[in-house]
Amino acid sequence: MNAMSIKRILAVISFAATVLTPATLALADDRDALEENMQDVKRLALEMHRDLIVMQDEKVFPEETRINVFISMDLGVFFDVQSVKVVLDRAEVAQQNYSKKQARALTLGATQKIFIGNLSEGKHELTAIVAGVGQHYPIRRAITLDLQKKPGTQTVNIRLSDGEDRQDLALVAKVMP
User: Fold this and answer.
1) Residue environment code for 116-131, b if the CB has 16+ CB neighbours within 10 A, otherwise e
2) Which residue has the higher pLDDT, 6 or 73?
């Protein structure tokens, strides 16, 4: 946590304490001004929350050992994803079951960070297992990536796409530069 972040957090807390004191609320004749102050407090609280999450990620997942795994899709209409499981060095590290709304968001171009973690340098094996429903039958596919972890943050993208005949599922796992 750097000094600038601590100063910002303290400023938000002192501002909120000033705005929300009972005396301030009792003196506020103008309801619009009070609502505006409340919106400012909410906005600052959200900014503070975001900053705390970023700082937590920096402390819990140091840049030297961090690995991010993302899921994205480029699919037609013949496959509905139901779940994705990520296995790293034979240990399950993440699983996501998708609602129809979440699956639709992925097909429209959304990308999901399914895993963030620490990984030591060296060779590792990352496997993604995808389950869903094809046109008339359930589909389950897996892809394994032999990963050479180097110092610094490493990002892996697991991309679900249409197979060659556009009625099947193809998986591509790629380490992003």
Assistant:
1) beebeeeebebbbbbb
2) 73
